[in-house]
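--- STAGE predict ---
source: upstream dedup step, 1 unique chain passed
mode: sequence only
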Amino acid sequence: MNDGLPDSLIPYDEIVQEALRAVVGRVLRPVADTGALPGEHHFYITFKTQAPGVDIPKRLMERFPDEMTIVLQNRFWDLSVDESLFSVGLSFGGVPSKLVIPYSAITGFQDPAVRFELRFQAQDSPDEPEPHEEAENDEVVVPAEDGSNVVSVDFKRKK
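--- STAGE serialize ---
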């Protein structure tokens, strides 16, 4: 149906991805300001551990060489949010750790309390990512998968 349309010279998909990643910062900023999550809200944030600007302890990088999911719920500290990244303190296996995560590294953001989810395209890489274990920094609550309030952005370019 769109076979006659030319490829866009404007990178709309990248612009939309960047704008949606900024949503994460807008959600995290009030939490950083107050030091607490409102109500029952809590966040699962998945990110590429090898992405530029990511700074996590070596032991976590070894355990999660491609992608990692963190949970902001009960035990986190020093949440700091700026225009391009956030940093947070979390405990892994009883060891306190500071993580610095640029929004550009994020591949997923979820708030199971209200069944809200954003998925982002991962940066193109030549190899398939290796499977990873979930981070055990907090209790995991499995959200319902009925699709309500889910925003999935998956732009495909015609080659």
